């Protein structure tokens, strides 16, 4: 009998919390949201003045990687922070090596960005017109500014093929005495299919890379030149190769990763996420700069259940890390499929979701901050976080997480898919 009474009581509490959330959260969003009349007009981002104070990294998440509209919102946000608040680094969820030549063109003003993007190993989603326009804007800004240059830096370590080519090219002049040993090691890594190697073989390569990296950092050449940009980049490049090996060593089997993503909508304690956080910290320390971090919604949030990138950044930076996620109601996006990229339609959001609460405000686009959301209830939120393989591989549009896992939302009613560079 006591067991039944306890179950009835718990059911009552859960039901009460559900109905409280169903009423309180939509009312809060309606009362506290700031309308964004035009997401491309920088003057509409003045709400950032308050939230950007004393921050080292402002993360701006993507509800989907496949939307030109969401890219344009993120780029407008960075432009505002660069012009008015002194942010200079744009950290992107792509491999470190893929952005090196593009960043050099942005900083120096030399180089055809369109050709560099098309010819690069960048994630196919980033080969869009909005990213080309954004990088060209950064390049033009750098030619007129008297302040620190704007830069774009990759924080990922999934694919190091372009990075190996860069190291082989630059180390021949930067680290002449170590070049032969480094090159032989890189040739071995390049010839191996790391993702299919036995974990013991990956571990062997990892240990070799760690010794080589330590020797590079202790070398007289590096100690004499470590404050020079080209040597920082060179060391970071080799460190990222080592990170790739560590990530593969500690990753789950591919089949288990897919099942985990289907079940939760995110990966649990994925080593890649921790390494992306480490590389973001590395970037702001290298340049003593403030950054905007561009990742998927599921990466930027501080969710203890998943221990994703945002979890480690919040742990390291505390309140100096600020999280803005994006959300939307409907539209079309590009997604990965087993036959390449595919255009899919995204229907209206589920009833109990952040997107639907924002839709009910009647505002086309809005910003709402949740730091003033004070309640004794343990509120959660269904946030849009569409995987790269949404509908083609993964069916889930939203995933549920604590409301305090992010600080704010930028919502827009309808999104368009990527406009790829022609």
Describe this structure as you would to a colleague.
The chain is α/β, with parallel strands linked by helices and 422 residues long. It is globular and about 65 Å long. The N and C termini lie far apart (70 Å). Strand 6 and strand 7 form a beta hairpin. Helix 11 packs antiparallel against helix 13 and helix 13 packs across helix 15. It is 49% helix and 18% strand.
Briefly say what this structure is.
By secondary structure, the chain is an alpha/beta fold. The chain is built from 16 helices and eleven strands.
- What sort of overall outline do the alpha carbons produce when their principal axes are compared? globular
Q: How many β strands by DSSP? A: 11
Task: Tell me the fraction of residues in β-strands, as a range.
Answer: 15-25%
Gyration radius from CA atoms, angstroms: 22 Å
Helix coverage percent = 40-55%
Q: How would you classify the helix and strand content by structural class?
A: alpha/beta
Mean pLDDT over all positions:
90
In the predicted model, the low-confidence regions spanning at least 5 consecutive residues are: 7-16
N-to-C span: 70 Å
* Tally of helical segments: 16
- Which series of helices and strands comes N to C? HEHEHEHHHEHHHHHHHEHHEEHEEEE
- Largest sheet features: 9 strands, mixed
